[in-house]
Design a protein that fits this description.
The chain is an alpha/beta fold. Among the domains are: 213 residues, Rossmann fold; 85 residues, 2-Layer Sandwich (GMP Synthetase, Chain A, domain 3). Helices cover 26% and strands 28% of the residues. The strands form six sheets. It has a nine-stranded mixed beta sheet. Pfam families: AMP-binding.
């Protein structure tokens, strides 16, 4: 079975959710057996996910029986959902029972508040090694998906488990969405280790989140930069959390001050803080910074995970051999996914990446072989002949004023969005001073909030230029 769940102690708890539903490994194996009896042939299924036992079991059940799931948010916008249905033609849906009346009439069976619904569609042919489909982390309103192989998912689970030294005694808080590659990595790596997953869909600002975390003695927490911004506002770094031993970060570059705060907190309180780097296209994690380097290598992504390789290439795609250098980051490893899908016709396609991923990220390598992300290669403007990094401008503003902000634009001008109008002139002056470009190149706009997805990533397409 998937991740050898049938070899775990059947009495051990595999998962608990914030509705206080729980599932032992033995119960999970029996569910997977039944899932396979009902879905007795390889096919395509959509999982409308929430962080709960039902969705978790559906994911494990699908992969244990060679059923290919596309995992999406249960609240996916109706238009996008209909586009995905039309584009990929799943034979089944696994969804919360409260949504059953919206998406189908033929209910096959139910489990832990989830039901299996038959769509009546004829599924497309599937590549034999295709295991899983996930939305690209940056896509909104798009049918573009990332195709994973069984080797990808298993390599990620094994390597992350090895990297973090996981064992059956871990109790991982799974607060990131299941449909998000980092959230799924938390689940897979801990199931591989025979540990317990603590599933919650509660917001970090909800008191019930903290009650759940403390009552179930969570030993690890994984967040994205936005998660840690919220934690800082909640004074997390003053909390007494004796059971929490491991804090991991992924999902983008963190502010330098906040990174240092996390590193200092871990060091002073006998915990580990491990920063990681990954993409959906690399099955979540491709690099990590060992905990003992967190204080000395601020904002570094470190080196490649076990069984992976990192390198840099120049603008012509040529390997950069110099020890200290800057270029596009390239990753090689068994967790590099098969490629993209845009429609059902692509699900029969094989491995197009061949284990090599050109990340699209500009990175710097230091003398010790540690890497630092500078920004996306496409996230640069040429203003009055000068190259300006949008990600770097965001970092400068956050570091100076601790403001939530987003930068976008064209070579004709940069749009800077901030959430506090009192800082409009100050931000403009800061950018002029740092970039040495005249004021007419920038337009600073105050908006109520920066649009972000549930993983905390900025939705640049939602920013309307004035």
């Amino acid at each position: 079975m998937f991740l050898n769940i049938d070899q775990k102690n059947p009495a051990d708890i595999a998962a608990i959710d914030d509705h206080e539903d729980s599932l032992t490994y033995g119960e999970l194996v029996r569910f997977c057996d039944h899932f396979g009896e009902v879905l007795d042939k390889r096919t395509l299924i959509f999982i409308l996910s929430e962080n709960c036992i039902g969705a978790f079991a559906g994911y494990i059940g699908a992969l244990s029986n060679k059923i290919v799931p596309l995992i999406i948010h249960s609240h996916t916008e109706s238009g996008l959902f209909q586009n995905l249905l039309a584009a990929y033609r799943p034979e089944y849906l696994w969804l919360p029972e409260r949504l059953g009346h919206e998406y189908g009439s033929e209910v096959i069976f139910g489990f832990k508040h989830y039901i299996l619904v038959k769509t009546g569609m004829t599924p497309p042919p599937l590549y034999k090694e295709l295991s899983l489909l996930l939305p690209t982390s940056g896509s909104t309103g798009s049918s573009k998906l990332v195709r994973h192989s069984y080797k990808n998912v298993e390599a990620n689970a094994r390597n992350v488990s090895l990297l973090f030294g996981l064992d059956k005694h871990e109790r991982a808080l799974a607060a990131l969405p299941i449909y998000y590659t980092m959230g799924l990595s938390v689940i897979s790596s801990h199931i591989y280790a025979g540990a317990t997953i603590l599933l919650t869909g509660k917001s970090l600002t909800d008191g019930k989140f903290w009650t759940f975390m403390k009552e179930h003695r969570a030993t690890s927490f994984t967040g994205v930069p936005y998660s840690f911004e919220v934690l800082q506002k909640l004074r997390f770094f003053r909390m007494e959390l004796p059971h929490l031993q491991l804090i991991t970060q992924g999902g983008g570059k963190m502010d330098e001050k906040l990174f240092r705060t996390c590193a200092d907190y871990a060091e002073k309180n006998g915990k580990k803080f491990i920063a990681t780097y990954g993409q959906t296209e690399g099955t979540a994690r491709m690099a990590y910074l060992p905990a003992h380097l967190a204080s000395s290598k601020i904002c570094s992504i470190g080196r490649a995970i076990p069984n992976g390789e990192l390198s840099l290439v120049d603008e012509q795609g040529k390997l950069i051999l110099e020890k200290e250098a800057t270029g596009q980051l390239v990753y090689k490893g068994p967790n590099v996914t098969l490629g993209y899908a845009f429609s059902a016709d692509d699900l029969i396609r094989g491995d197009e990446n061949k284990g090599v991923l050109f990340t699209g990220d500009l990175a710097r390598r230091d003398a010790d072989g540690c890497y630092y992300i500078i920004g996306r290669i496409g996230r640069f403007l040429k203003l009055f002949g000068l190259r300006v990094g949008l990600d770097e401008c965001e970092r400068i503003i956050k570091a100076e004023y601790n403001l939530s902000c987003a930068c976008t634009g064209t070579d004709k001008g940069m749009y800077v969005y901030i959430t506090d109008g009192k800082f409009t002139d100050k931000v403009l002056d800061l950018l002029i001073r740092k970039t040495h470009i005249i004021a007419s190149a920038f337009k600073v706009i105050a908006i109520p909030e920066i649009p972000k997805n549930e993983a905390g990533k900025i939705l640049y397409s939602k920013l309307i230029k004035e």
